[in-house]
Write a structure and sequence with these properties.
This protein has about 200 residues and is of the alpha/beta class. About 30% of the residues lie in helices and about 20% in strands. It has 5 helices and 10 strands; from the N terminus they run αβββββαββαβαβαβ.
């Protein structure tokens, strides 16, 4: 009995030590893990992490509704900019937080003719339909259902029809190989290239 007890204590100590090391790694990684490149502003270096669980090397923002240190404070559901204002808009992991139909309409409105929208969202390709549940209202519930406390949906493959319904032509890029490493993308992640 005494040997089993000491063995259990040793196992617990080992787990605690490894968890401390893991926690220290996570905290250190929040400021950036690997140098990456932004193909838009040409910044090269470390990017901060974002999300829960953290997505390493992710933050390069210029517009946000609630963020600090951004160039523009905008509500994507009612963008306070003129029609046909931009040649290119990048919307990276925003539509899962908001009314995506209003947001897509606004993004279409502010793009000039032949303008491009680069769009990324959490998408489960194996799902035919987007998963939403309006009964889920708590942070814990949204974490459980949608993977993050401020998400309100997981997109399915029907996202493509939503994009087209908003007026866009659609092309896709799948992150692979060196582009994953260079730009800090997730392996197999989709980038939707939407043209007006």
């Amino acid at each position: 009995m005494n040997t089993k007890f000491h063995s259990a204590i040793a196992t617990i100590k080992s787990l605690l030590t490894s968890n401390k090391a893991y926690l220290a790694h996570v905290v250190k990684s929040m400021s950036g893990v690997h140098p990456r490149e932004c193909p838009i502003c040409n910044y090269s270096g470390k990017f901060k992490a974002f999300g829960s669980p953290p997505r390493w090397d992710a933050i390069c923002k210029t517009a946000d509704l609630e963020g600090n240190g951004v160039d523009l404070k905008l509500n994507i559901e009612r963008i306070d900019l003129k029609d046909n204002s931009f040649d290119v808009v990048i919307c990276c992991h925003v539509l899962e937080h908001v009314n995506h139909q209003l947001a897509l309409a606004e993004l279409f409105r502010i793009l000039r003719p032949s303008g491009l929208l680069y769009l990324m969202v959490p998408i489960i390709e194996g799902w035919e339909r987007t998963y939403e549940n309006t009964d889920v209202k708590t942070d814990a519930g949204r974490n459980l259902h949608f993977g993050q406390r401020d998400h309100v949906r997981y997109f399915g493959s029907d996202l493509r029809e939503m994009i087209k319904h908003a007026g866009f032509d659609l092309h896709e890029f799948t992150a692979e190989g060196e582009n994953v490493i260079r730009y800090g993308l997730l392996r197999g992640e989709k980038v939707f290239v939407c043209s007006k």
